[in-house]
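re: ur question from yesterday

yeah so i grabbed the chain u mentioned. its 471 aa long if i counted rite. heres the sequnce exactly as i have it in my notes:
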Amino acid sequence: MNRPAAAYDFVVRGATVLTSADSFVGDIAVADGRVAALGAVEAGTAEIVDARGLVAVPGGVDAHTHFDMPFAGGTTADDFETGTRAALFGGTTTIIDFATQRRGASLLSALEAWHAKADGRCLADYAFHMAITDFSARASAEVERLAREGVTSLKLYLAYPGTLMSEDDAVLRALRRSNEVGALVSLHCENGRAIAELVRRALREGRRGCANHPLTRPPELEAEAVRRAAALARAARAPVYLVHLSAAESLETVRRCRQGGAFVLAETCPQYLYLSAREYERPGLAAAPFVVCPPLRSREDAQALWAGLAAGEFQAVASDHCSFPARTRPGRPGKDRGRRDFSRVPGGAPGVETRLPLLWEAVQRGDISTGRFVELAACGPAKAFGLYPRKGHLNPGADADIVLIDPRHRAAITARALHHAVDYTPFEGLTVHGAVRDVWLRGKRMLSQGRLLGRPGDGRYISRSRRQFCL
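ran it thru and got these structure tokens back, copy pasting raw so excuse formatting
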């Protein structure tokens, strides 16, 4: 039911409004930081924002970022201030980052450390996953406390032996425990021990360039880990969320596992859709910015992922924003660490600002529908991770996280125009049709015609609900 017109704070007038199920030209009324009404709205004395010719979408939800992440005695280049600023310019109003346990340490101490990194610095709303490196009895006991504090997702790695990797028995225990508290387990699916052996062999044979990165992390070892993850989830009778799927074989494995009764949610990332392993053919360190894990795959893999997106087989597209400078500087390990050894290149790339524009480009090209755009950019991750119905859509009662896109704008992506803390983007030169123009966060105007109005501290910590689905 619409409020009296005088009760609205402002009305976005005449936009093409997109939801996951509908598209219509109409108005969005906002009151007290929430969407109050949609359709033909009587504005009264409320402020009018003329949005004719623009597209209104819910603020993006990026469920996979790594801001201020410890690595090699330093941290990633983007902290929570620069990272969430870039997110806003890219139309993302909520991010979920990874509070990461030091092996043997308390999960609660990790959460406290990440709150200290983020509090008062964010320009977008934020939440945390808990990345677990040691699922001990103490960690298991702390999961309930985490859930009470709104951290309702756990992440474990099947890769990176000796640092982040968990063995299968620990993954099984985490899946069982997640069921008891209503949390969701995410898994990084690559066979870490087999990859380590392939890397050792490459180095023994003197193969040290970045061209060996995809050869030592082949798609078969991703698909094997996907099968194992689904088997463990079925044994625990728990759902599982698979991050950054990169290959056709992995997607086909997910299909078969779902047919076999596994409850598997999945995400992919723009780098696996728009880029390919040909980037590793660049000479020397020119290939290093493209070193991500899993690596870029073939163009045929990308085509399979696009088909999966269109068909509804993915629940989200996330950025996996993990930025490292091209050159090492104090406290910031750089891509040049791999000058003589590809395995030392920090794996990761910036992407939080380009995620939503690249997804919108997919709409413009006809690769996905507007409904799939909303689902993948906002609604799907919000539902998976306990942010819905507060986030991820524009229905009355939701937070007024509103993004206006100018569909007539056409420009090439360049590092110079972006707002993250490194001087490159893997998408340099790629043309997108459409630009983020205006952004509101809970009804506060954060971006106006491309000009930043928001400040650090405008973003708030979001306590997430326990998952709404069960087996």
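noticed a couple things. The chain is about 30% helix and 25% strand. also The chain has two domains: 5-57+393-452, 64-373.
anyway ttyl
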